[in-house]
Design brief:
Low-confidence stretches: 100-107
Radius of gyration: 18 Å
Number of strands: 9
Length: 245
């Protein structure tokens, strides 16, 4: 089985198992330009051509003007054009974060990474409603979801993660993660085979994070037990942490 066939099989299994897509869905795909989002859009565009179920796709790329994370929108536009998926590029910004350590704790703003992520999500939700999209597809793969569960156990003291499907309570939008059964190493290999163009990551706020450290822990767990991935996933499924309807 080729890498593409493996990813295709995992994506279709996820769509069926978690009922991620139904007939008539209008889906907004979050296209960051990274390997995961490019792979997800390519696979969903291929799936949409099968016609069962029938669904439409839009892609959205959010640019934060005051964070130095360069993306080649020309490449992304050409990529979407080949797939015949309309691309919407949104330029926005986040408020400056004060560096004053003397500020009282309750007056301090959220970290820049939090504000950046929050602003991107806000723009996605706004655009989804403007386009009458009932679903937003995010490119988190299985490794992301498992590492999030380990992060929450270690630093938050509760067993939870990013679900494969999440229905929002305050708006008629559902979050789906079509790559939830795909492994990162397969997507990395597929990205090389497809010659995906890498985006330039020079964000001044990017540094060693707890997520990167927990990723190393997860890799070590897999060395100790090659079945660790499936054991953790089974625990998430047993506790119904992968579906929130």
């Amino acid at each position: 089985m080729t890498t593409e066939e493996k990813i295709w099989k995992s994506l279709n299994k996820a769509l069926a198992k978690y009922q991620l897509i139904q007939n008539g869905d209008n889906i907004l795909v979050a296209l960051s330009g990274g390997k995961d989002s490019l792979c997800m859009l390519q696979m969903l565009a291929q799936r949409a051509r099968i016609h069962v179920p029938q669904f439409t796709l839009h892609a959205a790329h959010i640019r934060i003007s005051n964070v130095s994370y360069q993306t080649d929108t020309t490449y992304l536009q050409e990529f979407c054009n080949k797939l015949q998926v309309p691309l919407h590029i949104i330029n926005t910004s986040i408020p400056p974060v004060p560096n004053d350590k003397a500020l009282p704790l309750h007056n301090k703003q959220k970290p820049t990474c939090f504000l950046c992520s929050w602003q991107r999500r806000k723009q996605l939700f706004n655009l989804a409603q403007q386009l009458n999209c009932n679903k937003i597809a995010l490119g988190h793969q299985q490794d992301d979801i498992i590492i999030t569960s380990l992060l929450n156990i270690t630093f938050q003291g509760h067993f939870s993660t990013m679900p494969a499907i999440l229905r929002m309570r305050k708006m008629p939008i559902t979050i789906i993660r079509p790559l939830c059964l795909c492994q990162e190493q397969d997507i990395q290999q597929f990205a090389i085979q497809q010659n995906y163009q890498k985006q330039i990551k020079n964000c001044p706020y990017e540094h060693t994070t707890n997520r990167q450290l927990i990723k190393q822990v997860f890799n070590h767990l897999q060395q100790l037990n090659p079945q660790a991935r499936y054991s953790i996933w089974n625990a998430l499924e047993t506790e119904q942490k992968l579906t929130e309807y």
